[in-house]
Every structure is written in C-alpha cells, then in structure tokens.
Design goal:
By secondary structure, the chain is an all-alpha fold. The chain is built from 6 helices and no strands.
C-alpha cells in the first residue's frame, strides 16, 4: 500500500510529465513516457495566433490577470468539497493554460481535474500549491521574456 507522500509524488510526476499537447481534454501520461512540459511555449502560442506577437501579448496579459482569480475559485471549490465544481474549475484552468502555452500549469490542472472526477480531494488539495507556484513561474517567464510588463505578485509562495 502506498503512503500519502508516495501517492502525491506519483500524481505530481504524472502532472509534470504530461504531454506538451495543448489539447485541453488529453489524458496525462505515465511518469516515464515524456519530457517534462515547458513552463511557457511561446512558439506554440505564436503559431496558433498566426505570428501576431501583439495579439499574443494581449492574450498573455489577460491570462496573467485572470489566472489568479481562477486559482482562488479552485481553492474556494476545494473548501466547499464539491467535486463537480472542482472538476469544472480545474477544467477551465486547464483550457486557459493550454491556450497560452502554460504547459506545466495545464498538466497540473489536468491532474486536479482527473482527481476530482475520481472524487479524490486530497490530491487536489495537495496539487493546488503546485499550480499556484507554476502560475508564478509562468508569469515570471513571460515577464522576463518581454511578453508582458512586470506585475505585482498576488500569491506569495
């Protein structure tokens, strides 16, 4: 029987090693099947937006503004212990992260969504801080690469 820490490590490994595909409904891969997803895939975003960097910057700015609200809503749904709402909120976060090329965040949101669908709240709670941290890493990278202006940190992780 696996310990809680071993189960969390396995779930996190699946999230971090999930595919780089931006398909919002794709299942996570098992821990040995792929390279870790990138924090930000700017090339993929630009390709989807037909090379329009100005539009990409606007989309990224919108995501950086909205994602903290999505993460707070996910936290609120976890407090309520409503697995259907957790699953829906994680699904929404997964889709938005996929849209902007936040692949590692998308993978974590997918794992939260999958756990909620299986009515497993502990992994969802355990993964939320990783999702917040991954958002902060994403934000720092797009700021450092000049996609968006530097903004205040909302989460202090």
């Amino acid at each position: 029987m696996k310990t809680h820490e071993e189960s969390l490590a396995e779930l996190l490994a699946k999230a971090i090693l999930a595919t780089r595909s931006v398909a919002a409904d794709q299942e996570p891969l098992t821990s040995g099947e792929a390279n870790a997803p990138s924090v930000f895939d700017g090339d993929s975003l630009l390709q989807r937006l037909l090379g329009d960097r100005e539009l990409a910057c606007a989309v990224l700015a919108g995501f950086v503004q909205d994602a903290p609200f999505q993460l707070m809503q996910l936290h609120a749904r976890l407090v309520e212990e409503d697995t259907a709402k957790i699953q829906l909120q994680a699904h929404n976060l997964k889709g938005s992260a996929a849209t902007v090329g936040a692949e590692a965040l998308r993978a974590i949101a997918l794992s939260i969504e999958t756990s909620a669908a299986a009515s497993q709240l502990d992994p969802c709670r355990d993964l939320l801080p990783f999702a917040i941290n991954e958002f902060e890493r994403f934000k720092a990278q797009v700021e450092a690469e000049g996609w968006i202006a530097k903004t205040e940190n909302i989460f202090h992780t």
